[in-house]
Design goal:
Chain lengths: 261, 188
């Protein structure tokens, strides 16, 4: 080894001076500590005694653990959401259309309020039979009858305030309607809501399918029309009634009066 | 000590040590502990850091023994480890007062000196202390650790010509420092 590659003629004296310079040296304690460290490290298991080997061997396992740790929470959340949708969401969404009546019916919000707090099994919240609903929606309405108010349905126990005295024909007709409503109030809220006459929005829509009232109510209405002298109107109602209820038993006296006119 | 240890090269000893042979490590330590300690002591700005850096360097050698390639000279490998450890420490403790760098001249075990020798050593030590870091590093590795130009280049990561230039400038500054100090002493 050449330690004086750059020597110049005047450097000999300087080199000698540098070589004579006192030099620091490790203490015996440091020597002992370093040798003891090496001996201790060599006697430890190879897998755990040094960081160089340790890094190479432990990194893959640590990486795998980190990977699982990082995705554990998102995977858990996704699984919980899927489980919730499968167990609850499908039934809930599936029963939703049947629980809500057609848009425009006055009691839609009321029905939601009454049914929302207590989730009901699908079998209990099944929609009512379609026939009464269709009858109520398309029932012919007398011109003199006051518009039904949604608040009237939301408070079923309190009867509506009596309207001002109507004309005789209108009074009889209204009495029949009130009887029908009284019958409806004994039904379940949803059925009651569905059976209520449609509001303005529903009536302004294209004419619904054939009108249907409850048969007994309908007959009372026809009888009232006859007694009020509205024979033509009573016959129209009678024809519609027969289409809707061809086999319904009708009192002989009423039938004779209708056929007589 | 067996003859095989005395005659074995550093690289052979390092390979044996990597395989778990403690006597090989002892022999490596015997050969290089002095030079490494001098290098760290002259480069370290604080005397208190020297033992820590040297001990860390040997511990790092143990940790990195599995990755040692016999193509690399062991000594440069060892000094690079120590140098990197020193640089890390300097970065960590940047901004601290390094005012005790002049302690080294009094630390080593030295034979009895005449008054004139002591004065010369003090002037020389002062001249080395004010050298730029790269020049001082090259000078220490050459003069106190016995490395060649190529070995110094390998340890410091510089070109051989660069190392030569640093050494040349370092010697010029030392001569100039000694001459001016001698002139000032003669005038006084």
């Amino acid at each position: 080894m050449n330690t004086h590659d750059h020597d110049e003629p005047n450097d000999e004296e300087l080199n000698a001076l540098l070589a004579s310079l006192p030099q620091p040296a490790p203490s015996s304690a440091l020597d002992a500590a370093i040798l003891a460290d090496a001996e201790k490290a060599l006697h430890q298991p190879a897998a755990a005694n040094d960081s160089a080997d340790g890094v190479l061997r432990t990194l893959p396992a640590k990486k795998s653990s980190d990977y699982l740790q990082r995705w554990r929470v998102p995977l858990g959340l996704a699984a919980a959401v899927l489980l919730t949708v499968n167990l609850i969401g499908v039934d809930w969404f599936g029963s939703k259309p049947a629980q809500f009546p057609v848009v425009g019916e006055p009691v839609t919000q009321e029905v939601m309020r009454e049914t929302a707090p207590a989730p009901v099994p699908a079998t209990e919240s099944a929609p009512p039979p379609p026939a009464p609903r269709a009858m109520a929606k398309a029932a012919p309405r007398p011109p003199a009858q006051a518009e039904p108010v949604p608040a009237h349905v939301s408070v079923p126990v309190a009867p509506p305030a009596p309207p001002p005295p109507p004309a005789p024909a209108a009074a009889i007709e209204q009495q029949a309607v009130m009887q029908a409503e009284a019958g409806l109030q004994r039904q379940a809220p949803v059925q009651r809501a569905l059976a209520m006459p449609a509001p303005v929005a529903a009536r302004s829509a294209p004419l619904p399918p054939p009108a249907k009232l409850d048969a007994s109510v309908w007959l009372v209405k026809i009888d009232a029309l006859l007694k009020a002298g509205e024979g033509a109107l009573a016959h129209e109602e009678w024809a519609a009634f027969r289409q809707a209820y061809p086999d319904y038993p009708v009192a002989e006296e009423l039938r004779q009066r209708l056929e007589k006119k | 000590m067996p003859d095989t240890l005395l005659t074995a090269t550093d690289e052979d000893l390092m390979l044996r040590y990597s395989a778990g042979d403690l006597p090989s490590f002892r022999e490596l330590y015997r050969r290089h502990s002095q030079g490494l300690y001098r290098f760290v002591a002259w480069r370290s700005p604080r005397r208190a850091w020297v033992d820590e850096i040297v001990q860390d360097a040997w511990a790092s050698l143990h940790a990195a023994r599995a990755g040692y390639q016999p193509q690399a000279a062991f000594r440069t490998y060892l000094y690079q480890i120590a140098r990197n450890r020193l640089i890390d420490l300097l970065r960590q403790r940047e901004g601290q007062d390094h005012g005790d760098a002049g302690e080294l001249a009094d630390e080593g075990a030295s034979p009895p000196q005449s008054l004139e020798q002591k004065q010369q050593h003090a002037r020389l030590h002062a001249a080395i202390a004010v050298l730029p870091v790269e020049q001082k590093e090259a000078l220490v590795l050459q003069q106190f650790s016995g490395m060649s130009i190529l070995e110094i280049a390998a340890v410091t990561g510089a070109e051989a010509e660069t190392v030569k230039s640093r050494l040349r400038y370092a010697m010029q500054k030392l001569r100039a420092g000694l001459d001016s100090a001698a002139g000032a002493g003669g005038q006084a």
